[in-house]
Amino acid sequence: MDSLTPPSAAIAATAAERLAGLATPPGALGRLGELGVWLCAAQGACPPEPLDDVRLVVFAGDHGVAQHGVSAYPPAVTAAMVSTIVAGRAGVSALAQAHGVHVRVLDVSVDGDVPGLPPEVSAHKLRRSSGALHLTDALSPTDTAAAFELGRRVAREEISAGAQLLMSGDLGIGNTTPAACLVAAALGLGADEVVGRGTGIDDATWAHKRDVVAAALVRAGDRVDDPLETLTAMGSADLAATVGFLVAAAESGVPVLLDGLMSVACALTADRVAPGAAAWFVAGHRSTEPAQAHALKALGLEPLLDLGMRLGEGSGAVAAVPMLRSAVAVMRDVALLSEIL
């Protein structure tokens, strides 16, 4: 794809001038000031509009590699957590209610049918789980394309519904394994550098997970040079949908608040698919996964929060929403020094 248009440099300059003119000591607002300037540029308005419509889409899917001893939990947990989010009882649900965030969860590739789901949750299901990426391709090329387009379509739906800020959430046991593979493939890193503890695995399981990632990278070979081929070889339908979601947001000029490893791994992949997409992303929080740290550095992003979180679901991004609203408030409501002297 062609390089995407970045947020407005002219508006950023106007916002930086406004920030410098506020009735605060120079630099006193720190990251809030920087974030306010970025939001002005992303919205194309200075001062920025209040963030009244913030939307999170959680892409749920199972992973064939979870059947091969890389996680502390069984794959059945994925379906149970989809139902928990629908019921409004998940960790991200509580945070979203506290911070006024609309949550939408989609069963993209859960391994089996989840009973009792509203039709809109399962209407976009593409397949059941994915291939075990160290043994076979995770997806077919057709499935990769379908998942990518699904994500693009969902982003456009949320934007048409009024979204001013988008977030992607993940739900799927074993998903840190393909996410680590995406980061390793994009940055030319080895398995030792990207594999983390996921849901809290012990040393022996970590070593096995590292070997699985190493085997997947060898099996994929030079296909890792192409981001969509990488998703086919070592991704999953839910991650491919997330990549499409992030690309479409950037194409539409809607800012994205990223979550943990899965979100950032997909953001790195999205920037490979559509160079310049990363200019529309801000990192919500720093997870405990090493692959996320590598991806953030490559994207040039510094997380807003560092709370040691590793829940997933989009929870870290939702927790950071008040930071963005605070940045909007100072850019809109703090007096200019020229107004009070």
From TrEMBL:
Catalytically driven reaction(s): 5,6-dimethylbenzimidazole + nicotinate beta-D-ribonucleotide = alpha-ribazole 5'-phosphate + nicotinate + H(+)
Keyword Transferase: yes
Pfam families on file: DBI_PRT
Xref: Gene3D superfamilies: 1.10.1610.10, 3.40.50.10210
Gene Ontology biological-process annotations: cobalamin biosynthetic process
Highest taxon in the source lineage: Bacteria
Entry keyword set: Cobalamin biosynthesis, Glycosyltransferase, Transferase
CDD domains: DMB-PRT_CobT (cd02439)
Pathway(s) where this gene product acts: Nucleoside biosynthesis; alpha-ribazole biosynthesis; alpha-ribazole from 5,6-dimethylbenzimidazole: step 1/2
Alphabetical list of InterPro entries matching this protein: Nict_dMeBzImd_PRibTrfase (IPR003200), Nict_dMeBzImd_PRibTrfase_bact (IPR017846), Nict_dMeBzImd_PRibTrfase_N (IPR023195), Nict_dMeBzImd_PRibTrfase_sf (IPR036087)
This protein's record includes keyword Coiled coil: no
GO molecular function annotation: nicotinate-nucleotide-dimethylbenzimidazole phosphoribosyltransferase activity
Known EC number: 2.4.2.21
Its biological purpose: Catalyzes the synthesis of alpha-ribazole-5'-phosphate from nicotinate mononucleotide (NAMN) and 5,6-dimethylbenzimidazole (DMB).
NCBIfam families: cobT_DBIPRT, PRK00105.1
Family that this chain belongs to: Belongs to the CobT family.
Protein name (record): Nicotinate-nucleotide--dimethylbenzimidazole phosphoribosyltransferase
Taxonomic lineage from the root: Bacteria, Bacillati, Actinomycetota, Actinomycetes, Propionibacteriales
